[in-house]
Aldo/keto reductase
Amino acid sequence: MTDNRITTVRLGADGPEVGVQGLGCMGMSWAYGPADAGESRAALERALALGVTLYDTADAYGAGENETFLSPFFKAHRDEVVIATKFGISSPPEEPYKRIIRNDPPYIRQCVEASLRRLEVDVIDLYYMHRRDVNVPIEETVAAMAELVREGKVRHLGLSEVTAAELRAAQAVHPIAAVQSEWSLFSRDIEAHVVPAAKELGVALVPYSPLGRGFLTGSFSNADTDLTDQDFRRTMPRFTGENASANAALLEPVRTVAGAHGVSPAQIALAWVRQQAAVRGLPVVPIPGTTKRSRVEENTAATRIVLSESELALLEPIASKVAGDRYPDMTFASAGRE
Ligand SMILES: NC(=O)c1ccc[n+]([C@@H]2O[C@H](COP(=O)([O-])OP(=O)(O)OC[C@H]3O[C@@H](n4cnc5c(N)ncnc54)[C@H](OP(=O)(O)O)[C@@H]3O)[C@@H](O)[C@H]2O)c1
């Protein structure tokens, strides 16, 4: 099956070479309701066979559970995988979706040691600040992260949901390989400031939730009625109530383009994000999340789809019509602080 393998790209000027699509592993342990552990493990193996090398987790995903779950896979394939994890968000045990954000150096040190223990590896390939704690200067946070690079605990640095100004300040302290932020047909706010800054600085973009947390695939159309009580998407303004119905109607052009290519809407959503690399001139490595082998195959196959100018034009107006914010509190995203 080597002909199905995806191609590779360098993550930032000095970052690691990775498959052009990564795998988001969050849903294997957290956020989107229960997942089948055996099928998730099979999905990880299938992804690797198809050339996916960047695996995305965070200490916040199930309070460490996701890192622990991934550890056997990482250890079995240590030299083939690029392990990306994050610090910066925690939740009280009784409120799993409440967020406490911390970026202070002693906290970072405590987090990296805990992640290394759970992952059972000596070094993290890409260590991200998950969210910005505005009470700590970004220079101080990145200096503490750089210290971890010097000590050999971490290979490369990344930042999630930073503003363009925060990225510039960080890059002045230590090279940043990647910015991970939400980017999809539904969520394009980072195009205003963050994407141009990343391009200028030689930093790669790692779009998270490239399938709009599944909404762009048409697999659910209203979180209130279609998803379980434990599903995080029930807290998100654009997936509930009247917003959800209005947003579901926006998917028609995605279905039209999918029909023309004989592929799924999910594949068109992924092809669109990937094509932003060519449109905007910087490395872009989306990390769609799935817990299923068949979807790993479907999603990686989307790296071979090229959308025409007229198809891009048809998809262009969607994001500006989306009802509801990405998060209940938009300062949690870079656009809320730009
Ligand atoms: N930095 C951050 O703040 C942040 C925030 C959110 C996420 N992330 C990272 O980004 C990764 C991806 O984001 P995400 O999981 O939120 O959203 P996503 O990738 O946009 O969508 C994931 C959802 O789509 C479904 N799905 C995947 N492929 C599909 C297909 N081909 N057809 C139909 N449904 C499909 C998945 O369900 P199945 O499992 O059933 O396939 C899952 O419910 C996460 O795993 C996490 O690692 C980072």
